[in-house]
Design goal:
alpha/beta, Rossmann fold, six-stranded parallel sheet
Length: 160
């Protein structure tokens, strides 16, 4: 699968699109899709469990990776049919070695072209962008602006 780009309204639609693409690996950005930036560990645990429960229903999916550049971690990873991986301080999009053993094809589901999108491109995965909430902290707001400048250079096709 060549890397591609699609903008989708939310996490449920991105998971459905991953199902349609028959991916074997999905990498999820944590903030804000799984848990909001300023939420605590309980919200993170609930978000991880919710996503893994939905991912278990995707035929052929083998790996679900949660990836964040923050230091936050869930208190535990729920048991699941798919292999679940959690990467804190992931160094997206610079560091990719921790993803290279995952089966292909794959998709990255995230909100930032400048991190998640470039990671998808470097891995040869499809980037499924879900827009963030209207109120962004300063760092993500800056990255969002950078991503809008970078997207035409990284992804020549825009679906959605």
């Amino acid at each position: 699968m060549r890397s591609g780009y699609e903008r989708l309204p939310g996490l449920d639609e991105a998971l459905e699109r991953a199902r349609q693409l028959s991916v074997q690996t999905v990498i999820f950005d944590i903030e804000p899709l799984v848990a909001h930036w300023d939420s605590g560990r309980e919200a993170l645990d609930e978000g991880v469990a919710r996503v893994l429960s939905q991912a278990d229903a995707v035929p052929g999916l083998k790996v679900v990776c949660f990836s964040t550049n923050s230091l936050r971690r869930p208190s535990l990873m729920p048991n699941t049919k798919v292999r679940a991986v959690y990467l804190a301080a992931a160094g997206k999009p610079v560091r990719i070695s921790q993803y290279l053993s995952f089966p292909r094809p794959g998709a990255v589901i995230g909100d930032q072209v400048a991190t998640d999108g470039i990671l998808a491109r470097r891995l040869g995965y499809t980037f499924l962008e879900c827009p963030p909430p209207d109120h962004l902290p300063p760092g993500p707001r800056l990255m969002r602006g950078l991503g809008s400048l970078v997207r035409p250079l990284v992804f020549t096709r825009h679906n959605g």
